[in-house]
Specification:
Layout: E1 47-50, E2 55-61, H1 75-87, H2 89-93, E3 97-106, E4 115-126, E5 129-138, E6 145-155, H3 159-164, H4 167-174, H5 179-185
Antiparallel strand pairs: 1-2, 2-4, 3-6, 4-5, 5-6
The protein binds tetradecanoyl-COA.
Tetradecanoyl-COA binds at residues 2, 29-30, 35, 83-84, 87, 98-101, 127-129, 152, 154, 156, 161, 165, 169, 173, 185-187.
Catalytic activity: decanoyl-CoA + H2O = decanoate + CoA + H(+); octanoyl-CoA + H2O = octanoate + CoA + H(+); dodecanoyl-CoA + H2O = dodecanoate + CoA + H(+); tetradecanoyl-CoA + H2O = tetradecanoate + CoA + H(+)
Region (Disordered): 1-22
Keywords: Apoptosis, Cell membrane, Cell projection, Cytoplasm, Fatty acid metabolism, Hydrolase, Lipid metabolism, Membrane, Transit peptide
């Protein structure tokens, strides 16, 4: 099993000088993203804000479409919320990275209508590997922890998406006249 703890010699994650100021709403990186896009009716519609250093906060409201057991959020959906929140840390570092490995602890059941208060930070960088951790709390940022995760993101080139994504969506994203939106679809920073 490969560790999700930064190895000895790992560097601290660097916040890019042009990263959005703490408190800034990051918005969606891609309209059709299941985690944050407004174009996904059953998506999570996560709203993420830049924090200090390489950290972010986000809110996710659990809706009936996100159920697993009756009245409770599906664990995979909660993991998606954590994944998306940690994934947005790349925007503060100005790197493109994808999830390589992710481990979730489910600590408390999360009822429908709960607003999950998520926070994530980068814990270290080693070569192309970015180590991250996140947690989701119920009832406010000081509420009890319901879920927590650690993940390893791997930096990739934009070809990761253009070579592997379905052509239809790649062409549409590339053709977007909005330069920032086009860049963010692939999390490539302008
Ligand atoms: C179209 C629009 C798209 C928009 C996207 C926006 C961005 C996303 C937004 C956010 C959305 C949410 C986020 C999402 O949902 S991202 C979507 C989910 N993730 C993926 O689809 C990734 C699929 N996997 C791959 O493409 C490759 O396997 C990657 C690129 C990850 C690595 O293959 P690559 O050939 O490049 O790498 P390497 O083999 O040279 O290894 C390099 C180093 O990494 C270490 N390593 C590798 N794998 C693992 C592992 N599993 N556990 C532990 N360690 C691992 C490896 O040991 C080595 O370490 P070291 O030997 O150097 O020490």
């Amino acid at each position: 099993m490969r560790s999700l703890t930064p190895p000895p010699g790992a560097a601290a994650a660097d916040r890019h000088p042009d990263a959005p100021a703490p408190g800034t709403l990051l918005g969606s990186h891609y309209r059709h993203c299941f985690g944050c896009g407004s174009g996904q009716p059953h998506g999570l519609h996560l709203e993420t804000r830049a924090g200090e250093g390489v950290s972010v906060t986000a809110e996710f409201t659990v809706r009936p479409v996100h159920q697993g057991a009756p009245g409770l959020a599906h664990g995979g959906v909660l993991t998606t919320a954590l994944d998306e929140t940690m994934g947005s840390l790349g925007w503060l570092m100005h790197v493109i990275a994808v999830t390589g490995r992710l481990e979730t602890d489910f600590v408390r059941p999360v009822p429908v209508d709960t607003v999950l208060h998520l926070s994530a930070r980068a814990t270290g960088v080693h070569g192309r590997k970015i180590f991250t951790s996140a947690e989701g709390r119920i009832g406010g940022s000081g509420g009890p922890v319901a879920v927590r995760a650690e993940a390893l993101f791997i930096q990739v080139k934009v070809e990761h998406f253009t070579d592997n994504g379905r052509d239809e969506e790649i062409q549409a994203a590339m053709a977007d006249p909005d330069q920032v939106r086009r860049a963010r679809a692939f999390e490539v920073n302008p």
